[in-house]
TrEMBL record:
Belongs to the LDH2/MDH2 oxidoreductase family. It comes from the Bacteria. GO terms for molecular function: oxidoreductase activity. This is LDH2 family malate/lactate/ureidoglycolate dehydrogenase. PANTHER family: MALATE DEHYDROGENASE (PTHR11091:SF0), OXIDOREDUCTASE-RELATED (PTHR11091).
Length: 365
């Protein structure tokens, strides 16, 4: 299949639209279902995309509906995949995702790790033969809501330079961690090892916008604020050598150890239409009952959060927040006010619905 890797949009003065969470979820699930994904999987992916959008993480939000749908229609993803555990060794599990859409593969790994961790105290599940799975936080939060501390990481196609290099060599390899906080959303960190999630550059290009300095270089290794040039080039590691080192360790732990696939062995879902992605994920779940106990841990987390919130704020800040609280507040607001979408993204969702022969159209709140 030959197609442009990225479609560059133009900036528009058209006002944004608001769509209820339920309507947006229904629309995205309907499009994916029309592209051949079974209903249960369609709703899982749509829930992940809308969750990210409602939390203000538009780079991993509903704009991804198109690329997932296009890869499903092109046969690049196995819509009927049934991920399964292929090997176990006490607290270590290996899951073959069978080229499933990444969310389905990731959930299989998460479930395998959490179910075993309740028995053994700690468990790790590696997932191979998967695809892009959206935000890792969507999965680590699910486990934390079951009372488990959870860590996750994933490989990604080579779109980032290593510190000191000027050409693509490694993925933006994200990492997420969630800690349960009973009565409150989990404390969650989710970050790419790049200066920014590459999805933000893709979205900026779709909207016809430039990007900040320090995010990327062009294909000659020169700094750029042109989103189109950045997509042809490489993103930069966050924190220079530190982010570069983290990305390399995710590549080794999650790619080499779990799947024997790193670097150019991982396909780019936008640029490579000749093969599956072969992304791999790693989930590590810990049950507090194996250490201080869930009740003691929960009390400590409550006190810890109170101390953090009680810290004196720096100039220009209203207070010190826990990781994920900004996004949690945006989600709460979206539940009441709906999700705000740019006119460009809303139009693209309806265009994708038409392409997939899905009759539904966005219902603007």
């Amino acid at each position: 299949m030959s197609k442009p890797a990225y479609v560059q949009g133009t900036a528009t003065d058209a006002p944004p639209v608001r769509v209820t969470i339920d309507d947006l979820r229904t629309h995205c699930a309907g499009v994916l279902d029309a592209c051949g994904l079974p209903s249960e999987a369609s709703h899982l992916v749509a829930d992940s995309l809308v969750d990210a959008e409602a939390r203000g993480i538009s780079s991993h939000g509903v704009t991804r509906t198109r690329i997932y749908g296009e890869r499903l229609r092109a046969g690049m993803i196995n819509a009927a995949a049934e991920p399964h555990v292929v090997s176990t060794r006490t607290a270590a599990l290996q899951v073959d995702a069978d080229n499933a859409i990444g969310h389905v593969g990731a959930l299989a790994g998460l479930d395998a790790a959490t179910e075993r961790a309740v028995e053994t105290g700690i468990a790790a599940a590696g997932v191979h033969n998967s695809n892009h799975c959206g935000t890792l936080a969507y999965f680590t939060r699910r486990a934390a809501e079951r009372g488990l501390v959870t860590m996750a990481m994933s490989t990604a196609p080579t779109t980032m330079v290593y510190f000191g290099g000027r050409s693509r060599a490694v993925g933006t390899n994200p990492i997420s961690m969630s800690v349960p906080r009973p009565g409150h959303p989990p404390i969650t960190v989710d970050m790419a090892t790049s200066a920014t999630a590459r999805g933000k550059i893709i979205l900026a290009n779709q909207l016809g916008q430039s990007i900040p300095e320090g995010w990327a270089v062009d294909d000659a290794g020169r700094p750029t604020t042109d989103s189109a040039a950045a997509l042809l080039g490489s993103v930069l590691p966050v924190g220079g050598a530190k982010g570069s080192g983290l990305a390399m360790m995710v590549e080794l732990l999650c790619g080499a150890l779990i799947a024997d696939v790193t670097g150019d062995g991982i396909g780019d879902m936008y640029e490579d239409w000749t093969r599956p992605q072969r992304v791999s994920h790693l989930f590590i779940a810990l049950d507090p009952d194996a250490w201080v106990g869930r009740d003691t841990f929960a009390r400590h987390i409550d006190g810890f959060a109170e101390r953090v919130h009680g810290l004196p704020p720096a100039e220009g800040f209203d207070g010190v927040l826990l990781p994920g609280e900004v996004e949690d507040r945006k989600l709460d607001a979206a539940r009441t006010d709906g999700v705000q979408l740019s006119a460009t993204v809303a139009a693209d969702l309806d265009a994708m619905a038409e392409l997939a022969d899905y009759d539904g159209r966005l219902v603007v709140a």
